[in-house]
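Troubleshooting entry. The earlier prediction with flavin mononucleotide gave an output that would not parse, so I re-checked the input for stray whitespace and re-submitted. Clean input:
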Amino acid sequence: MSVPLLNASGCLDAVSAPEVARGLDAFVTKTITPLARDGNPPVRIAETAHGLLNSIGLQGPGIDGFVRDVLPRLRELGVSLWVSVGGFSAADFARVCERLEQEEGIDTIELNLSCPNVDEAPETAAELVAAARGATSKPLYAKLSPAQWDVATSARAVAAAGADGLSLVNTIRGLALDEHTLQPRLARGAGGYSGPALKPIALAAVWACASAVDLPIVGMGGVQSGQDALELVAAGATAVALGTVLFGDPGAPARIRAELIEAARALGLAGPAAAHRSSVAKSDENTCK
Ligand SMILES: Cc1cc2nc3c(=O)[nH]c(=O)nc-3n(C[C@H](O)[C@H](O)[C@H](O)COP(=O)(O)O)c2cc1C
């Protein structure tokens, strides 16, 4: 059995790069909000030594523009479609989910509960999931922030509120300063940090949540190679998403898929899915020794 590969939300534009999206098992849209948004002012991207900082700020056409102009083109891809949903209140999440409920061809809704580049909704992640759950019967994945000490508690709460799966992890807030002016390189100041430095953080979150809840998990954060993907599976992910790597390597889906199979073979596993921790050993990492 193979491991499904997706893109991470916001890291692939399937309309301008359909051939990349077709190399994935599912395409995940950039987060869609109720109203159109310009996002944050430039500069919004800064490369750092070990990862990328972004402060895009949920730029997008809003749900009406998405359904009218983008969704028909995504349906033509012939790839399973996930729509990422965001907002600034429980009512926002409910409104976007209600609108998507009427649309064909959307397999899963991913709830972006954790964007570090916009002001957060005052409600808890579980309250946002509950609001979305009341508005749609489509499968709901809750995307959680790694910036919390006990992500497993959030995982249990969103599971109880009706989430069907977890997406782990979003970016974590970071700051880069210009080496000459010592001023923030991003106009907004801090941004969301992604890329290789996120991998140990993602592994810890996936590991903790896989112990806490019995839900499928899309693991992401710093995946650059098949070995990285295999490690997320070993930590408890049932699927893996590619994010920052896609900006520099549009061929990453095929490359990582091949490397994943090879990495599993080198370890004597029947296939990548055989690395999944449920098929290896259950751990007792929640026990304080
Ligand atoms: C430029 C950029 C834009 C992003 N936009 C979104 C977004 O719209 N919604 C979302 O849930 N995550 C967004 N993310 C976060 C990614 O989906 C992913 O969680 C994160 O980048 C970690 O994976 P990576 O280290 O492989 O990039 C964005 C990340 C980047 C780099």
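This one parsed fine. Residues 282-289 have pLDDT under 50 and may be disordered.
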